[in-house]
Amino acid sequence: MVVLGLTGLTLTLARVEGWHAFVDGRWGILLAVKILLYLVMVTSAAYVVNVVDPKLKTGLVVAEHPPDGVFDPVTLGAFDGGEGRPAFIAYHGKVFDVSNLEHWKSGVHFRHPAGTELSSALGRAPHGPEKLAGLPVAGTYNEEKKPPISRPQRAFYFFAYMNLSLVFLVLMVVAFWRWWA
What we know:
The protein has 6 helices and 6 strands; from the N terminus they run αααβαββββαβα. The chain has 181 residues and is an alpha+beta fold.
């Protein structure tokens, strides 16, 4: 975008003799519209890079119980037992809270991390599902449920589609330029 801006500025300075050129003819009006669209794109890109992107990087999911009680892989993954978060595991469609078990204190039981679905792993364990019998059930697990879209994700999608639309508008301005001028 910087290269486009610098080359556009250089060409504009070379061809425009004064501010009146932006309002006197079709060419100047189309150039002004093109510059305005470019500035909106640059501003929105700067906003995404400086505001939206850091929010996306801080984590999409917070360890919160889903309102409907149905965990998806992303929501369950937030309950990994790290940094004071609870440790949950899924087994055959149920989500169990293993936070109070000594073997899960660090969020990992041998090589099995909390926040994951462990149905197949428990089949290979030296113990059976009887170890889960007295544990609190936190909810149900649906591997195919889509996680909710966060506000930063929505903002990112909005700006991405907006900039795509602006690129289309710039192409329309260029087409009008060729046709109209």
